[in-house]
Amino acid sequence: MRSPDSSTSVPDLELESPVRGSSLRSAFEWTGRVIAILSLAFLIWQSIHALRAKLSERVTGAQLRSALARWSTRASPGAIHVVLDSVPQPELRDWLAALRKVGTETSWEGPKLGATALNVEPVVDPMHSARIWIAAPSASGLLVRDEVGAIDSARVRASGSVLTTPHVSGIVTAAGGNAIAAARLPDSVVVKPVLLIGIASWEGKFVLASLEERGWTVDARLGIGPGNEVVQARAKERPAAVIDTARYSAVIALDSSAARYARSIGEYVRAGGGFIAAGPAAALPAFAGLMPGATQAPTLAGSFDIDSANPRRALQLMPIAALKPGAIALEMRDTRTAIAARRIERGRVLQVGYLDTWRWRMGGLDENPSSAYRSWWSGMVSSVAYGPRVPRPAESGAVSTEPTPLASLVGSLGEPRLRPDINSSLLGDPRLLPVLFAILMAALFFEWASRRLRGRP
Amino acid sequence: MERGVVRISTSVGSLASSEFVFATAMYESGDWESAPSMPANLIDSIARYTALPVEPTGVNVGLGTDELFNYPFVWLTGHLPVRFTDQERRNLKHYVERGGFIVVDDHNHDVDGIFHKTAQEEITRTFGPLKTVPKSHEIYHCFFEFKDGPPATQHELSGWGDQLVHKELFAVFGAGDRIGLLYSSKDYSSEWNFHPDTKNFMAIDPTRFGVNLIVYALTR
């Protein structure tokens, strides 16, 4: 006989079990529905957000032009971000800036862009009218051109390069560091003769010859004896005492015979003239007020065999010491100053400590000592020479130049910044979208399957 | 560019950075030492007529040596055949190209002589044909005035050698039309080969043209 308690407990179990399973299943189905709705909502929000605000493209070269055209016509994005592989041309840069001004949030980055800058300046040199300064990333290749053709190419050492050229025509461009800088020679200079003063000697002869071979017009006054001086035809037309910037671009004194012109030379320098005192002339008390420093006792001459790559080491040197305030050492031999420079009012003075520099031209063992010697002396004269500037006539229809393209880009568009944060958060990760879609589909499938297995529609 | 010379009053009483040294070229062939008194005579003339710092004694320098390049003025003469070695020829070419000044003087005063023929051959081989130096050239006017070109020598006037009075000198011109090599058939080596004191007894010092050569070399 069954007890009443036991007979009633079994049906209870049979009744409660389907109810509990049904509620769990129902909760599972509701969870699936919620997940599906949330995923769908997020995907819709993402789509709307992307349509509304985020348009980010990686564009280079011609792609930027077409993208700008698209952004300016068919699409009207709220924000754009461009990743540049090269500095855009000025018109493209201005186009981007214009988009920013009409309300488009514009950002850019260019991790490969290097700072390239170009400057073209006139130089007082009869054979070179322009000096071109280029700043570019180290080890980048450079191609310098003007409107006629290529001027030079080089691989940048350190952080820049400088070259002088006989002539430039129109706009000069320097391509390097993923940028093209462009500049124009603003004006030209008037090159006047050089006055050379000294006693007839090998030093005077070779300095005169070298400067003339480099295209300088040299008025030489080379003393031979009491009352005698070899004076070139061009110089004899001018009174000896008149040394001024209207006549000469530079004055070179080689020895003590220049002392009698000390007063004129001082006035000439203060008026803007260039003065080079070399060898014994640099030690003259008459020029002490002009010199950048004081000369010391000369060293002994060396041999060109010792260092043929640096032939001036073989020359006898009167080291320059006690540099005055504002004077700078331009060339050193070990710890001693060989050449020093100083500005005096509007003029420039060069003090050269080397003696008998002609020995380099005659006896140097470098590949072409005559040419190197010419360049060296011409460079020194050019570095101090007075050259009044003459503005070049404006060219009609001239294209604007861009001497510092990266700086101009920053000036127009602001500092570069990495792509805005949409990619940096989990929600902004584009890989999330297919995952969410898969979750959505899975939730819908399991919810549907659960209902069908329960026999529900 | 037009050039000329004027003399104006100046005072040159100080020293240049290096002294002028008269150098005689030694070459492998021939008798390079055939005018032993001439260097001292020209040195005397430089000291006598100018205030240029000058080394009282000359030097002999090998044409084929690096030492040649320490002396931008070199005198080369002789009577015998001239045959330069490869090194001498190479040095001579570099010497002129770099701005040196060499005088080659025919001690025979004879255009049919062996020195003239062989020296001309060597020069032509090294530089190409010699060119005539015009009478207007600076070398005739840079210190003493020689309006008629190179002064005649006693050998020419006496009818020795080729019995010709050579009216011109010849040259190899370097950069800027500067004379790098001067060739003379006038035999100045004989004309100036005497003791310097002898000049005291001469109406006209024949070495004056030698002074012009040195002044030209030092100033152009």
Main attributes?
heterodimer; A: 457 residues; alpha/beta; Immunoglobulin-like; Rossmann fold; 3 domains; eight-stranded mixed beta sheet; four-stranded antiparallel beta sheet; 24 strands; 33% helix; 26% strand; elongated; disordered N terminus; B: 220 residues; seven-stranded mixed beta sheet; 7 strands
Low-confidence stretches of chain B: 1-17
Structural class of chain B: alpha/beta
Beta content of chain A comes to 25-35%
| Order of strands, widest sheet of chain B | 2-1-3-4-7-6-5
The largest inter-chain interface, given as chain pair and residues per side, is: A-B, 48 and 43 residues
Task: Please describe the biggest sheet of chain A, giving its number of strands, its sense, and whether it closes into a barrel.
Answer: 8 strands, mixed
Average of the residue pLDDT scores of chain B: 89
Q: Give the H and E element order of chain B.
A: EHEEHEHEHEEHH
Tell me, what's the shape of chain B? globular
CATH architectural name of the largest domain in chain A: 3-Layer(aba) Sandwich
Number of domains of chain B: 1
